[in-house]
Specification:
Elements (H helix, E strand, L loop, with lengths): L12 E3 L1 H16 L9 H6 L4 E3 L4 H27 L1 H19 L15 E3 L1 H17 L5 H6 L4 E3 L4 H17 L2
Antiparallel strand pairs: 1-2, 3-4
Helix pairs in contact: 3-4, 4-7
Length: 182
């Protein structure tokens, strides 16, 4: 039986192919459904994680497909929301979210997010602050930055670093805003 994605070599970890196939089938059903019942949404796709197993699906190929799937769901959600509340209200909400993001990004280096205790590992503040300056340039000055860069950014761990959940929530908000204005 042909596989959906290329597989990793038997000795290399990849995504569990059964989990990926089940998720994609659920996503396909949700996307083709004619109603707007909640099920799979762009945010859920962004937060999806799969178990790893040797010889599983290539992570690069699955991640790229998930990005495209998230884009498709976000576009559909945007159209539904615009038809429900109107374009002005929808863009006002997107502008409000962008304003919140810019306010957080405008904080001084080392103070953008809460820190975890020195016994706990968080994201390295220097890495996060450097990327935050890039994000700030995107929002304030229109400097180029792709969704893929935001989705795939990786920060080094550091004891006493920034609280990961806060940084991740901001990155999710950035992705939502970027998808909103596409």
């Amino acid at each position: 039986m042909p596989s959906t994605f290329p597989t990793a070599p038997r000795s290399v970890l990849g995504y569990d192919s059964d989990e990926v196939d089940r998720f994609l089938e659920d996503a396909r059903r949700a996307y083709t459904a004619n109603d707007s019942a909640p099920g799979i949404e762009a945010a859920k796709i962004r937060a999806t994680a799969f178990s790893m197993k040797k010889g599983g699906y290539s992570t690069v190929h699955v991640d790229a497909a998930l990005e495209r799937l998230e884009d498709a769901f976000a576009a559909r959600e945007r159209e539904r929301e615009i038809s429900d509340v109107g374009q002005k209200a929808w863009y006002a909400e997107a502008r409000g979210k962008a304003s919140d993001v810019v306010a957080r990004l405008g904080r001084p280096d080392g103070q953008r997010f809460h820190r975890v205790s020195f016994l706990t590992t968080g994201y390295h503040p220097k890495d996060v602050d450097a990327f935050s300056r890039r994000l700030h340039g995107y929002f304030k000055d229109g400097k180029p930055l792709s969704l893929t860069e935001v989705r795939s950014v990786v920060f080094r761990p550091k004891h006493g670093g920034y609280r990961e959940a806060q940084v991740d929530a901001l990155l999710d908000a950035v992705v939502e805003v970027m998808l909103a204005v596409r």
